Amino acid sequence: MSSANQQGADLPIPGPRHVAIIMDGNGRWAKRQGKLRIFGHKAGVKSVRRAVSFAANHHLDALTLYAFSSENWNRPAQEVTALMELFVRALDSEVKSLHKHNVRLRVIGDTSRFSARLQERIRRSEALTAGNDGLTLNIAANYGGRWDIIQGMRTLAQQVQAGELQPDQITEEGLSELVCLHEQAPVDLVIRTGGEHRISNFLLWQIAYAELYFTDVLWPDFDEHVFEGALNAFAHRERRFGGTTPIGADAS
Predict the structure, then answer these.
(1) Would residue 61 show up in a list of annotated catalytic residues for this protein?
(2) Would you list which residues are annotated within the binding site?
(3) pLDDT tens-digit profile of 29-56?
(4) Most CB within 10 Å of its CB: which of 140, 147, 167, 232?
(5) Which structural domains are found in the chain, ordered by start?
């Protein structure tokens, strides 16, 4: 087990249970190779495979990957089409291996905009791995944090309209139960590759108290050593959750 997951005198908090990654830099990586952007996306699939293996080997509860945001539809049509096809192929080629290694696959986001072919691949992949109890791999596809919160609020509004809920009964806890990933461990750590220092509408509700880790490494170059570095950085953070005493410290 990684030292980042051990709780000792030199590590004030235990390792994260749930890591989320904004996978950025595929296009720039491809440009440096003199290739089309889709070449970088294809190379990024290998990094996904490495990240999933690392997360499983380090006994994380969940790994959430930002694969396609709701804003990515604004990219050139040719690139979007190629990304959708790559998504289909990745599901076909990877899901059996995920199932073999006891990984449960979840796809979060508004999948209704995807083709019927892709939606069917998603349903089959989720069904195949539904009974697995190892790592949960969440793929955020056509996902946006604002969309996530809005769809939760719509449900609450419908409950109010139906007389099932009073406006003054709307609580933070109630909305938390309606956003994506509510049944999983809270997100502890967000990693963003590619050198940008922003959240890009990713899990806005879920990462309110998550630690943030930014690296200049482009996603196709993300490997076990970079992941380990992020976990080591997390292990030396002081997580207070709005309080004054770091998690893991003696509050007496």
Answers:
(1) no
(2) 24-29, 37, 41, 69-71, 73, 75, 192, 197-200, 211
(3) 999 999 999 999 999 999 999 999 999 9
(4) 140
(5) 18-144+186-236 (3.40.1180.10)
